Amino acid sequence: MTGVRGRGRGPRADGRRATGRPLSHAASRPIPAGRTGTSRPERRRPGRRTPRAGGTSTAPRRPLFTGRAVLLGGLVLLLALTLAGPIRQFLAGRAELTRLAAEGTALDERIEALEEQLERQGDPAYTAREARERLAYVLPGDRLVVVVDGEAVEGDAGTVPEVEDGDPPWYDALLQSVAVADGDEEEPTE
Fold first, then answer.
1. CA dist 63 to 68, 70, 144, Å?
2. Is the pTM of this model over 0.85?
3. How far from 101 is each of 81, 87, 105, 173, CA to CA, in Å?
4. CA-to-CA distance for 179 and 107, rounded, in angstroms?
5. Which distant-in-sequence residues (6+ apart) come within 8 Å of 138 by Cβ?
6. Is the CB of residue 157 less than 8 Å from the CB of residue 139?
7. Is residue 60 a part of any domain in this protein?
8. For the region Disordered, what residue ranges are annotated (predicted)?
9. 84 is a domain residue
10. Residues ≥6 apart with Cβ < 8 Å to 58
11. CB 3.0 to 4.6 Å from 131: which of 14, 114, 137, 149, for a disulfide?
């Protein structure tokens, strides 16, 4: 009789004894209030505890960090450390590009200013005006007025003022002072 289904001699795999009745018939019976439906005590499931009568739970507390949370945190930290260098280089590169773009703009403006100055210097009237202002050049026939030590000295254009009072020119006086310092000549007495 071992081949008949549901009529084995030993306990079943789920721990209940086979009664031979269909399960649908057993589940459709009404259960009286206060009873669980069977007269046998229910087996305890492993891993579950029933609370004690004092109201305090002695169930073990869940750990603050589970293994999965620690692993996830470690992976996030590893990812952040891996990406920190390239992100820093990216931001530094963008700052360098911004700086170079500003420098390029400034250089373009300087190029424009220098090109304008080159155009001005190509004009002969500008060159003549600058020579008169900066180098005190005069055209023949113009009158030159130079202020020396608060006195106005006038001269004609193209003429060199003559030396007065018999003073030697400044370069002769310089050479004479070098010769005196060298010991070649004696100092003139006045």
1. 12, 11, 102
2. no
3. 31, 21, 6, 58
4. 53
5. 132, 144, 157, 158
6. yes
7. no
8. 1-62
9. yes
10. 49, 52
11. 137
CB atoms within 10 A of CB 23: 8
What pLDDT sits at residue 106?
97
Report the C-alpha gap between 186 and 190 in whole angstroms. 12
Please, what is the end-to-end C-alpha distance for the chain in angstroms?
160
The helix or strand, by DSSP H or E, that contains position 188, with its residue range, turns out to be: none
Provide the 8-state DSSP code for 1.
-
Kindly give, in sequence order, each residue whose CB lies less than 8 Å from that of residue 65, ignoring residues fewer than 6 positions away. Answer: 73
E-state strands within 21-150: 143-148
φ, ψ of residue 146 to 5 degrees: the values are -120, 135
Q: Which domain holds residue 83?
A: 67-124
- Across the chain, the runs of DSSP E, i.e. the strands, are 143-148, 151-156
- Residue 37 clears pLDDT 60, i.e. is over it: no
The answer to whether residue 190 scores a pLDDT higher than 90 is no
Q: Give me the sign of the Cα torsion angle 112, 113, 118, 120.
A: positive
The confidence score (pLDDT) of residue 138 equals 82
- Residue 138 placed within a domain: no
pLDDT at 12 over 90: no
In a domain, 88, yes or no: yes
Per the CB < 8 A criterion, the answer to whether 117 and 127 are in contact is: no
Number of domains in the chain: 1
Would the CA dihedral through 69, 71, 72, 74 be positive or negative?
Answer: positive
Rounded to the nearest angstrom, the gap between the alpha carbon of residue 8 and the centroid of all alpha carbons in its chain is 78
